[in-house]
Amino acid sequence: MRYLLLCCFLALAPLWLGGQSNQLAQQYYMDGEYEKAAELYRALAESGYNSFYFDRYVSSLMNLQRYDEAETALKKQLRRTPEDLTLHVKYGQLLEQQFDDDKARKQYEEAIANLGADKFQITQLANAFVVLTKYDFAIRAYERGSKLLKEDGAFSLNLGDLYRRKGETAAMITHYLDAVAEDPRHGRNVQTFFQRYLDEEGLQEAQKQLYARIQEDRKENPLYPEMLAWVAIQRKDYKGALRQLRALDRKLGENGERVLDLGNLAANDRDYETAIAAFDYVVENKPAGSPFYLEAKRAGLLTRRQAITDGYDYTEADLRILEAAYLEFLEQFGRNPASARIAIQLAELEALYLNDLDRAIDILKGIVELNGVNETTRAEAKLALADYYLMQGEVWESTLLYSQVDKQFKEDLLGHEARFRNARLSYFRGDFEWAQSQFDVLKASTSRLIANDALDLSVFIMDNLGLDTTATALQTYADAELLMFQNRYDEAFATLDGLLRDFPGHDLEDDVVYLRGRLYRKLRRYDEAAAQFQQVIDTYPESIRLDNALFALAGLYEGELGDKEKAQELYETLFIDYSNSILAVEARKRFRILRGDAVQ
């Protein structure tokens, strides 16, 4: 046993010692102690040839400017292992260090000329050139290697990467597309490269090359239209992407899923025309029982509604056309649990845009009483129904419904929303202290929107409750807010005018100006709304509404008034000068989007 252990130790000792020497040599090399590194690496290389050890040995000699020794070692090793073409690259580097560029070039040329039909050798040589940033020689190595192997696309990804490093975008795109054509599994990687390295001009070049390939491709490879659609989406050219995806859907006999996904992308980016065309394609070309038919039908309705309500010049005729589309959907699919959310959308259209509260309430009551409806959907219907009851002045019906949802979904966001609306109702009715206590609790909600709104109202009540022993002015302001909620705009304006008349110089003056801005915005009188928000900013620099006014004014310029530059300026002012505002984070996000940053 002792003899066996001794034999094992003697056999393994050189490996252990070699490992120790390698670590020590590496440390010396990293620390710039090239004399010691050279001795260790020479010993390691001589004990059994290893290209890494030998390369480090020669590099150490070059760093010591012992060029003759380095050249002798390289020539000797070239005689021993002529198949290791990277030695020519190292020799060329040595000659360049001695300013003999012509001889160095001959070594590089010789390495490429001696290449064989060996994929490993080709890659190894090209990588040696890449390490020295000699990209043109690396490209030549790969190109010659492809010919020797008789595989045109063997190194397309490598060539694409090299042209990227050289900044030659067109050539980079060509080789990356060659890689996809050679092996479709490279498609995702190439998309990642394009997303990372191509700007708008580069994406246009990719689009141009893909168009050319599609026209020349007799096999009608679907990969090219897929890539072209993807590039179009990166450029937010959803209409161009839709053309490609519809053609692919027809050619491949697909189920419309890709077209539906594109519609959702376009809708989220407010390209409603393309989104509606995508959803309509699925509805018109797929059978009613297909997996995406109903989803496309629903999405088409929702997008038509967004297209109208996000547009600033819609007419009642537009709303009636949309209403007819909702009614047609419900007639086709029936009023049942599956169509409940569509019915909720129809009720919103009736109540908030067509001012038919009775009809909206009837629709929602039907959903609340419907057997089998999802409880979350039922709760959403109850919240909307409570809002519409409040708009009619039915306070008790409203608070009852809010309380039901609060109780059923106590720890859920729906419950938080119901509690917030109930607290807001108490604020409208003048029960300020109870309302504030509820808002204080809701400031900890996991929903940022609810938490922000709760904090806003809590601070507002606290700031104004002690100013008037009867709280009459605050109640008048709350009355005006309720009238705005009920779409009774003329009465809301009159109430605000009365507040200023009855309480001249009151601290609520800035709040009155801000609320007028909100009223004008709901009335789509955007210039007047902007003037009110600007007045808060100019006239009331200490107002707690200042950050709200900045954010609202920026939103107007970003959307309805179409001045992105002004919007960006206002968002920047908000998150820099009012960094403690609850709106600062969202302002920064919108600023970055307008600046063109990629925002998660």
How many runs of DSSP E, i.e. beta strands? 0
- What's the gyration radius in Å? 36 Å
Q: Which class best fits the helix and strand makeup?
A: mainly alpha
Beta-strand percent range: under 5%
Under CATH, the homologous superfamily of the domain at 466-595 reads Tetratricopeptide repeat domain
Query: What gap, in angstroms, lies between the N and C termini?
Result: 65 Å
Low-confidence stretches: 3-18
Oligomer: single chain
Overall residue-averaged pLDDT value? 90
Q: Biggest β-sheet: count, sense, barrel?
A: none
CATH architecture annotation of the domain at 466-595: Alpha Horseshoe
CATH uppermost class of the domain at 466-595: Mainly Alpha
CATH topology of the domain at 466-595: Serine Threonine Protein Phosphatase 5, Tetratricopeptide repeat
How many helices does DSSP assign? 32
Q: Outline, from the CA principal axes?
A: elongated
Share of residues in helices: over 70%
TPR repeats: 510-543
InterPro entries: CellSynth/LPSAsmb/PSIAsmb (IPR051012), TPR-like_helical_dom_sf (IPR011990), TPR_rpt (IPR019734)
Keywords: Repeat, Signal, TPR repeat
Signal peptide: 1-25
